[in-house]
Amino acid sequence: MDREVKQRGFSIIELLIIIAIISIIMGVAYNWIINLVANQRLKNAADMLMNDLSKAKTMSVSGRYMWGVYLSPGENCYLIFEDRDASCNITGTVNASCNYSGTADVVSRVDLPPGVVVDTGSSVVFDRKGYPRNDGCGVGPVTITLRSTVTGSRRSIYITSFGRIRYEVE
Questions:
Q1: Does a structural domain hold residue 28?
Q2: Phi then psi for 18, rounded to 5 degrees?
Q3: Cβ density class 94-116: b for 16+ within 10 Å, e for less
Q4: Is 157 within a domain?
Q5: What tens digit of pLDDT does each residue of 40-97 get?
Q6: Cα 117 to Cα 154: distance, rounded to the nearest angstrom
Q7: What is the CATH number of the domain that holds 158?
């Protein structure tokens, strides 16, 4: 009597096909997740900088001195300072990693999230009326751009001549 023996399980070919499909899906998902995290870090950095700019503006309007934010292109940090000598810029020396040495009143050093750098921008100081002033103490609109080093995405923060702060995705 011959009996047929039924085999249970998967063949090696079926397992290899399933592994190949899972690998392809994981490869696509990995790139998507990396881009998602990088863009979220860029958004968080822009929100953080906008909040600090608003804080500097509020402190300038309500306090005795002008307040500002020092930004150095290519760096992943910035400084918030009190402009006691009304020079519209930070006095002293700031090296490559936002380490400060000087006499100005640097209130805080803020590190941007990993993979985010200042693309364009310089010092922004707010006067007692809340109007932005540039390095030369001229009143006028200011644009600051942050860039993701992972995706190359940019977010620009615009400060109008009247002190309104907003940002856009590029």
A1: yes
A2: -65, -45
A3: beeebeeeeebebbebbebbebb
A4: yes
A5: 999 999 999 999 999 999 999 998 889 999 888 888 889 898 888 888 777 666 766 6
A6: 10
A7: 3.55.40.10
Q: Domain total for the chain?
A: 1
Q: Let me know if residue 68 belongs to a domain.
A: yes
First to last CA, the chain: 77
Alpha helices by DSSP H, listed for the chain, are 12-62
For residues 69 and 62, what is the distance between their CA atoms, to the nearest angstrom?
A: 17
Cα separation of 165 and 3, whole Å?
82
- Among all chains, which residue has been given the structure tokens 């009326």? 129
Q: Give pTM, 2 decimals.
A: 0.81
Among 59, 96, 50, 62, residue whose Cα is nearest residue 77 = 96
Does 3 fall in a domain? no
For the chain, how many residues are written?
Answer: 170
Range of the domain at 16: 12-169
Q: Which of 61, 49, 53, 1 is nearest to 154 (CA)?
A: 49
How many whole angstroms separate alpha carbon 122 and alpha carbon 143?
Answer: 9
What would the DSSP string read from start to end of 95-144? Answer: -TTS-EESSSEEEEEEEPPTTEEEEE---EEE-TTS-EE-TTS-BS-EEE
